[in-house]
Amino acid sequence: MPVLHLLSETQPLPKPPLKAFPPIWAQSRQEVCESFEWFRSYQGGVYQNNGSVKGYFLSAFSAQRDCFQCGGKIVISHGGGKADSISSAQNVKGQAKTAVDQRAQDSSVQALLENYRKNQPLVLLIDDKYEPFPFDLSSREVYMTVLGFYKIIHTWAEYQSSNSNTSGRVVRYKFAFQWCEDQGEPWWSKGPSDAIRSNSNNNQVSVVTSLLCLLPDVRSHSQPKPANLYFPCAACSEKSPRVYRQAWACLNPACSAFWTMPSGQSLPENLDYNTEFLTVIDHRALPLSYRDALLPKTPVLAPHGGVTTSYAHTRGWHCRKCGRLSCRSAWELYQCPNCKVCASILGRVRRPPCVDIPLAYSLHIAIQRLAPRFFAHSDIGMSGPAGRCQTFILPDGKGKIHLIQTNRLANLEADQIFEAYQKQASDGTLLLRRWPLRSVSLLLRGQFLTNYFSQNSGETYHYVGGGAETVPFVHAPSSIVQARDLIQKRIHEALGTQHKFNEVLSAAYMEQQKMAFHSDSEHGLGPVVAGLSMGSPALMHFRLLSKYVPRNEQRANAMTVVLRHGDVLVMEGAGVQDFYEHTVVPCNFRIAATARWIEPHHA
Ligand SMILES: O=C(O)CCC(=O)C(=O)O
């Protein structure tokens, strides 16, 4: 018996499984941030926009007295971080981090106070670690889900005990959120027949929309606002709510009487809520503009003008059948990873350059540059030079960067390859995908996909995708083989050297996508890496690896090269990868083919 008693005290009781899929849910934070406009914060729990909060995320690490009351129609949470538990959770290396007081000026607290002042709704989201939610989200592999629109009905500050603070306590701002009744009953309180059916293949009409249609709720539990909840403080004259059953106290942390009861004593250590304070106080209406604003909009599949690489097309997808949010991970279609519903994207072939280079782009070359050399082109029937090559020499013999540029006529080959890439990507011959990143912050749960689309051909290349997704050259689409051949030809024309590459990584970027700083560090990588650029111009920055930058020096870009349609950039020498890293930031829609030699059967 004593053992049973101990268990029930220390372990939360198992929760019942979710009756059905929620109307809006995801398996990673990235899926939420890319598909749900009310929450775009990859770190932290408060998503702000224009000084107020759009989305508020509830997870583990609740503070004292955080709660989920009245079936979830009242939620109390501490806003804006700085908690003991949050500090240690974010502290991946495990160093102790002291909890500090929250202040009204803290950005998140300030933004939440703004919502309160303006009576502006926000969206609450939870994950499977949010203890007070009554159902087990993980029973359906739901990591994050959207509760709905809420309004802040009370806000106050309180002391919370803290182990890591020398005074033993810290100031926390608390917020009481109330469900907006216009949404009907919360989805988690509905019976299974109302909810979304899982993995249904029977062509049933989606029930997601009907769950969220925002009709006035005749079953509202609203009560008139109690008149006797707020009282002024004799010292600061500010009104504070009677939050605790034990007594009223001033809850303004700027007042000398903060946390003091009318008797002059501090509030006791153990407090519980005044039941009147926890009731749903009155009807919280949703402004008209919010009434159908929760469900993410379906992206335009066949836009006027045929451009399907705009920023809007980099955003994710909300499956109306099962409620799952997902990233756009395939070039040619949206597909729900849960119920496999697909929608094809219909674009047109674009001609280069897709946009011109912005004037603001400047060239910073901090490295010795050799005079450009011109080269001829033998098989195109042109007289005069076909292009020029500039070579940049890295300090201390670490390597060379060659930029091979061709004139307009010689670029016809690049034009044709660019067109073939687009056709093969949209008909599914070339499977451009956003692959899971290999190393992801420990804080980000679930998969995290690269920012751009890619496909690897020839030898395996582990930087993206991993070996299993590589297509051997014999099965590779013609665009990729032609790109590799053109790179080899240009190097021969411009540098007079013969290179045979056995691997090509094709990368495709939509508006605002890029490849982050990295070095090509594949085991067995040959000393020459060369890339063909197609479509919009891009900036390629090189900088020293952090281990080679003295501690007190700022790490700046050592060199920036502008890559235009048809350019081939060659990185020559192992030192370019061993001492430097590079990033590529396109202006807009762009495709790049980067060719390497990699020892066959490398680990
Ligand atoms: O040119 C590009 O888009 C990036 C190529 C690159 O850095 C790579 O494949 O490692």
From TrEMBL:
Record-annotated Alpha-ketoglutarate-dependent dioxygenase AlkB-like domain positions: 457-586
Name recorded for this polypeptide: Alpha-ketoglutarate-dependent dioxygenase AlkB-like domain-containing protein
Xref: PANTHER family: ALPHA-KETOGLUTARATE-DEPENDENT DIOXYGENASE ALKB HOMOLOG 2, FE2OG DIOXYGENASE DOMAIN-CONTAINING PROTEIN
Superkingdom: Eukaryota
Binding residues for substrate: 461-463
InterPro entries recorded: AlkB-like (IPR027450), AlkB-like_sf (IPR037151), ALKBH2 (IPR032852)
Binding site for 2-oxoglutarate: 509, 518, 582
Gene Ontology BP terms: DNA alkylation repair
GO molecular function, one term: cytosine C-5 DNA demethylase activity
